[in-house]
Write a structure and sequence with these properties.
The protein is an all-alpha fold and 289 residues long. It has 3 domains: 74 residues, Serine Threonine Protein Phosphatase 5, Tetratricopeptide repeat; 92 residues; 98 residues, Serine Threonine Protein Phosphatase 5, Tetratricopeptide repeat (Alpha Horseshoe), CATH 1.25.40. Helix content is 79%, strand content 0%. Helix 3 packs across helix 4. The termini are far apart. 30% of the residues are buried.
Amino acid sequence: MFLSACSLAANPLLKNRKKDKAMEAYKQGNYSAALSIWSSSIAKYESRHKERKCSVYTLAGIAAYRLNKTDQARNYFEHARNGISENAQTFWYLAKIYRKIDNLSLEIDALENYLKKYPHGTNIQQVKKRLLFTYVESENWDNFLNLWKIIPASSKDSLTYQQAFLSAQAGLNHVGKADSVATSILKVYPEDRPAMAWKANKYYTLAENLYESEMKAYKKHKTRAQYARLLKAFDVVSANFKRALIYYRKLYKMHPTTLFANRLGTIYMRMDEKPKAQYYLQMAKKLKN
């Protein structure tokens, strides 16, 4: 009887029936039953330290993920890597889990592995898109530009992609390119906040830098020639502050922030409109608190 029992336990037909039963349950959406069978199989492989030869880690991980068992799913997917169970879905779900637990660096690693190992995977376009935006979040501009080269041209014209491209150009301090992108966005989406913020900051910085430098020069050399130069500079300063003002007023109305209020206060102060300047500077303090 003992020999008969051992023979039955080692019977490959019995093992195959269990695998078929697990897969059938999985396909029917009975993830709990499938996970129970696969977890038992995984435990046997792990007890013999043969994890890489286990073929069901990714399937078990997906079943656990569907049951909201995030920690268990993560454990199975991480074991699946570099083993016979690894496939594109391994990294797809790992990326989703890392995003869920807010671990950006691990999410990027999973997405990069998918892109490198499975460039023709089912979810490759979604992977490229998400990876592109993780590079924006992490301010990894060089990798962003490298990935941008292989993004389909048909996608690049969408607003979200153009906003990302604007962020990259601004992050790399490519002023001319960033300004060109912002202009293109505003032609189609005149109320786009990132593009308006770029334009507002551009004109504000030009005006403020020129104002500060010319005032410093005049205080150092209070001559008639220097004063004439100061007045001439003020024309340019005023024009750029007025351009910035248009954008900052829209931005503040859409989304009041300390930065926008401070910028409006400074602009009105430079333009000698003290009541408006005081109002926005006071609002900046309230928003900060």
